[in-house]
Amino acid sequence: MTERHAPPSSAVRHPVEGTEARKRVAIGSSIGATIETYDFIGFGVAAALYFNTVFFPADDPLSGTLLSFATLGIGFAVRPLGGIIGGYLGDRIGRKPVLVGSLLLMGIATVLIGLLPTYAQVGVWAGILLVVVRVVQGLAFGAEWGGAILMTFEHAPWRRRGLYTGITQAGFPVGLLLANIAFLVSVPLGDQWAWRVPFLLSAVLIAVGIVIRLKVEESPEFEDLKAEGEVSKNPLLEVVRDDWRNIVRAFFLRMTETAGYAVTITFVVSYLTSEELSDRTTTLTATMIAAAIGVAATVFWGSLTDRFGRRPVYLAGTIITALWGVPLFWLVNTGSAIAIVAAFVVSYAVCQNMLAGVQGAWFSELFAARTRTTGASLAYQLSAVVSGFTPLVATALFAGFGWIGPALLITVYGVCGVIATVLTRETWGAAEKAAVDEIARATARPVPAPTS
Q: Is residue 190 part of a domain?
C-alpha cells in the first residue's frame, strides 16, 4: 500500500494556518481556471451547436455531429500529454511558470479558432486546422489543472484545504457560465459570427489572467523542496514507480466526474437540439443556471470534506451519478423548459460538482510533495481521454439503441466511481486531523509575557 504522506516538515515557514497569500493565491488560481475553462469548454458548446455544419459537410447532420465530437475528443486525448509536461515542469522548476505558460498557450489557440475559415471556404482544410488548434488547447488545458490546484493546496490552511481547493475548482463552472453567456448573447449575430465572437473575446480575458498570475507567489512547499535539495530529478518516473496505484485509483475517480459530464451536459445539449426538444436559447439558459448554482455548489462540496472527510462526500456523488442516467432523459424528453433546467442543475451542481469539489484536496493528498503535480495531473488528465470521446460513444449508442443507450452509459461511469471510491484511502480522517492538531500545538508560537 502506498505510504501515507504527512504534512510538510516546514511548519514554521508554512504554518498550519496557511501562508499570508493563501486567499490571493486561491482567487488568482480560480480566475485563471475560469479563463482556461471558458476557452476549452467554449469549444464543447460550439461543437454541440455549430461545428457539425461549419467545419464539416452539412448534407449529413449525424456524420457532422460525430466528426464534431471527434474533434472535441482530440483535445481531451492530448490532455494527458499536457498534464505530463506541465506536471514534470511543475515539480522540476515550479508551479508558477506552468500556470503562466499554459494560460498564454490556451489564449493563442482559442483566438485562432475564432479566425479559422469554414468548410464552405476551404473544404476539408477547415476541419484539419480545427484539429490542430484543438490539440494546442488540449496541451494547455492539460498543464493547467495541476499547477492551479497545487498552488492553492500548498498555500492553504491544512484544516481547510477542501474549501480552498474548492474555490479554485469553482473557476471551472464560472468559465462554463461565461462561455454559455457569450454564446447566448452572440446568437443574434447569425451562424457565421455567433461562434466566432466568443472565441475572439477570449483575448481580453487572457490579458487579464496573465497579469493576475504573474503576481501570484510560488508554492512554499516547492520552495522548501528546492532549498533542501529535494526536488525530484525525474518526477514522472518516480511517481509511476512508487505511486502507480494511486494514479489508477484517481483515474477512475476522475473518470466518473468528467465522463459523466460529457454525457449529461455535452451530449444532452446536442441531443436536445437534434431531437428538437429545445431551442438553443433555452438549452444555453439551462446550462447557465446550472453553472451559476455550480459555482457555490463546488465550494460547498469542497468545504464539506473538511468536516466529514474526502471519501464520504465523493461516495455520495458517485452513487447519485449511477442512479441519475434514466431520470435525466425522462426529464429532458418532456421538452418542458422547467424540466430541462432541473435536469441540468442536478447533472451539474450535484453529480459533477460534488465530485469536482473534492478532487482538488483528495488528489493532492494522495501524492508526496516532490511528485505531487506530476501524479495528480497524470491521473486527472488520463481520464480526459475517456471523457473526450464519451460524447462520440453516446451519440453512437443513441443511434443504435435510442436514449436508453447514453442513459445506461452514465450508470456505468457512476458504478466505476463507486468501486474506485471504496478502494481509495481516506486522506482526511480522524488520524490525519489529529496529526495536524499535534503539529499545530508543536509549532505554535508562545504568547509573550505582558510587559509592565
A: yes
